[in-house]
Amino acid sequence: MQEQVEVPDMRSLQVSASEIQNQGQNQGQNLSNQFEYACGSIIGRNHVLASKNNQDALRIVLWDNFVTAVVCDGCGSGKHSEVGAKLGSRMVTDAIADLLHQGLAISDPDFWNVLKINLLQKLKDFVTIANDSQESVMEFVNNYLLFTIVGLVITPSETVTFSMGDGAIAVNGKLIQIPAYPDNAPPYLAYGLYRSDAIEFEIRDQLPTAEVESVLIATDGIDDLIAVEEVDRFWQEDRYFKNPDAIRRKLSMLNREEVKPDWQKHELIKRSGVLSDDTTLVVIRKRLAFSC
Fold first, then answer.
1. Cα(26)–Cα(210) distance, rounded to whole angstroms?
2. Which residues are within 8 A (CB) of 169 and not within 5 positions of it... i.e. 6 or more apart?
3. Contact at 8 Å (CB) between 212 and 170?
4. Cys-Cys link to 72, which of 147, 178, 180, 239 (CB 3.0-4.6 A)?
């Protein structure tokens, strides 16, 4: 039986007790009140046919003073890349939250270097704990820990989108598809375990948060989606924000196989799903009450 990796419902706010006490005093800076989000993920047609899991993952974290979200896409040739994608989405958002709580600013270039160093240390620790002694480190990493990263961070003053690997980002309606890398070999974070200078986070957008109306981040599976759907609907239409399952349902409908009769030709016409690869997206937009 095909098992689809579930996308967790991240709609519960991750807010500390001290910040809850301060909410009434800082409504103007409370980003969890200023922005709303929607998200969804679907297993690609090719992975269904190959009896593989959905190798994408997402995570969204909202605090009063920042919002961060990440989508990760596991390497297609890895035997269990969904493991790395799920670990990666959690590790990256947690590491970003830790640095922000320490007072580091996302506008500081050192922020992204420190983030990389901290993530590589987390990967090293995980490899040490989880690796079977009968499996080489490189084999373990290739099978479990290769994933791309596309993400965003919103603070009261500034918003940044970033990536390590391919995917897509749209800020205020301007969509940029990050092209595939040569030989379809993106700079996976885990490559930094062998050479730390081989990977870097790429800053894609950097703008004042006051100018942010909407942000979309997606894995590269969105390439097929763009060919058949106007993706601006995902941040324009209220239904995607009112129903936490609406995006997944839309993606699922597009990937449904259909068999219809052609009465003139006396034959059945089969239409395959249009999303060949796993497709995952997160959309964040400013609530209407806070829009200019």
1. 16
2. 150, 152, 161, 163, 175, 176, 178, 204, 205, 215, 216, 217, 218
3. no
4. 147
Single-letter amino acid code for the residue at 224: D
| Residue entry with tokens 């269990």 | 80
Sheet of 214-218, strand order: 35-42, 279-286, 214-218, 167-171, 174-178
- How many CB atoms are closer than 10 A to CB 64? 22
Per-residue pLDDT of the chain (292 residues; tens, 9 = 90+): 333 333 333 333 333 333 333 333 344 469 989 999 999 999 999 988 888 899 999 999 999 999 999 999 999 888 999 999 999 999 999 999 999 999 999 999 899 999 999 999 999 998 988 776 556 888 899 999 999 999 999 999 999 999 999 999 999 999 999 998 888 789 999 999 999 999 999 999 999 999 999 999 999 999 999 999 999 999 999 999 999 999 999 999 999 876 666 677 766 666 668 999 999 999 999 997 666 5
Around Cβ 225, how many Cβ atoms within 10 Å? Answer: 23
Strand partners, 268: 261
C-alpha of 4 from chain center: 17
Length of the chain: 292
CA–CA gap between residue 274 and residue 229 (Å, rounded): 10
- Joined together, the tokens standing for residue 62 give 């909202």
Nearest-10 crossing angle of helices 81-101, 137-144 = 90
Q: Closest Cα partner for 220 from 71, 108, 21?
A: 71
